[in-house]
Structures are given as C-alpha cells and as structure tokens.
Amino acid sequence: MSLNVVRARVYVKAGAYCNVDVNCVHVLEETVEKMSSIDTTHILAPTGLLATRLGEAQRPASGRWKKLQAEMRGLVGRAIADYNMISDGDRIMVCLSGGKDSYTLLDMLLSLQKRAPIDFTLVAVNLDQKQPGFPVDVLPSYLEACGVEYRIIEEDTYSVVKRVVPEGKTFCGLCSRLRRGILYRVADELNASKIALGHHRDDMVETLFLNMFYGSRLKSMPPKLRSDDGRHIVIRPLAYCAENKIERYASQRGFPIIPCNLCGSQDNLKRQEIKAMLAVWERADPGRTERLFRSLQNVSASHLADRELYNFAGLECSAADAGVD
Q: In angstroms, rounded to a whole number, what is the distance separating the alpha carbons of residues 173 and 184?
C-alpha cells in the first residue's frame, strides 16, 4: 500500500475529526515509515493546519506524482484557454464544498495564478447549509493555513429542504437550486466577475445521459455559462479532467475532505445509475468516456433533428445541384 495513503489518516469510530498537535507530525512520520500494512477501511482525511503541514512534509516526489501534477495543470490550463474562462483583472469566486473536486479546483487555480501571464484574484466561498454534523472549523482552518481569502456563508437551507421535500425523496434537486441562488447573490456582494465550480469531465458526460434518459433533451454542463439573467459567468476549469485523476490528486495532496452525505439524503440514484453504466462501459472499452466527452465538442446540428437549431424546412436543392439546365 502507498505510504501516502497511510500517512496521517486518523480514524475515529464516532466519525469525528481528530485534532492532533502539529508538533507531533514528525512522530507520525516516523511511525508511518515503519508500518508495512494497515487497515484503511473507514478512513477520514486530516483536517486544518495538520492537513496542510502533512501535505507539505510528505507530498510525494515520485515521477508519477510529478507527471500527474503536470497533467492536471495542463488540462486545466487548456480548458481555461479554450473557453476564455479567465481574463486579466478577474475576481473569481471559487465555490468550495469540502469535497475532492472543489479542493482540487482551488489548488489548481492557486497554482496557475502564480504562473499565469495575467493577473486575477481568488476568493473561496463555502455555503454552510446547517447540515447536522457539519465540521465548521475544517475549511476556515485549511484556508487560513493556505493564505486564501475566503468567506463562509451561513444559510439554513437544510431546514427548508427538510420541510418541503416529502419523506424518502432526495433533497439534491431543491438543495442545488437554493444553493445556486445564494451563490449568485454572494458573487454580487463580493464583486466577483466569475464563479468557478468544480464539475469535471465525468460530471458533464453523466449529465448528458441524465438529460437524454430522463428529460428527452440533448444537454449537458457547459465549460462556461452565462446565467439566465445575464449577470453572472460560471466557469468549470476542471472540464477536461477525469474524476479518477482528481481522486488521485486529492489523495496525494491530503485534502481534509468533508463527507457530502451529512444531510442524510439518499444519493441521487439516477446519477449513480448513469455513473455505474459508464464505469461498465469504460472497463469494457477503455477511453469511451473521453470519446463521449469529445463528442460534446463536435456537434453537427444538420445531422440531428432539432428544427430550432437547424433550418430543415428551408432545405432545398438548387437547380445547379440537381443538374437542371
């Protein structure tokens, strides 16, 4: 098992985050070096300053890790360039949930900020929706240790969703809509010119099939979007990144991951079904998910059937084409 997987993973049966004195980090490092195996079932990542220190102390210097870093930065940089996601002087609001995707998004943007030929600023925003058991100290501790400007928004959407959604139904749809409205409002308050979300390539492909299977629409998540009211630009810099690479990156960086099921809602079952279907396809035909994503970039409107998108009714042969004298 990878030393990086073992390092400083602290498990508490109650599910609480364990605070360890940063001065003890060197002891943990020496102990981990001597461990040949460990049961990593039910593992939680370290939190706050400990996570940051451990990430710095034990970040792997292997060739594979350096290759993954370079690949991820390259994919994010290319997506930003291809869709003109970031301009000089932008103030970007990075939506941070505490999951692997949003941590990776922030990490990538911080890295690119140091290397980019243009100037832009970042402000991380987390929406505390008052879900039971939400560890309120994790994100502030992490962001302060990283020196990132941030804002925590407290809105009790959990109670609203619990009251409105019938028992046994998933909260995800309503919760998402409430969250979106709040984030748009906060973007205005922060004078943010762009809103960055952590959706990745696999999310976009899954959404394509969700809309086809259950909504009869050929629609996905675009890498760049203008809101319906025209006031906000949403960007998805991880659009070219595969989920499995994000998982590897987040694991290597040791981000203090916050569980996404604290609300007690069942998973979005339809999305999970699509995810399982794509996983089966990918095992049988490696590279299929990437090809599906690329199909979103190569659309032939004249070879679909949308009369609003293409003027089929006005399609006629000219006399020259028909060979008429």
A: 17
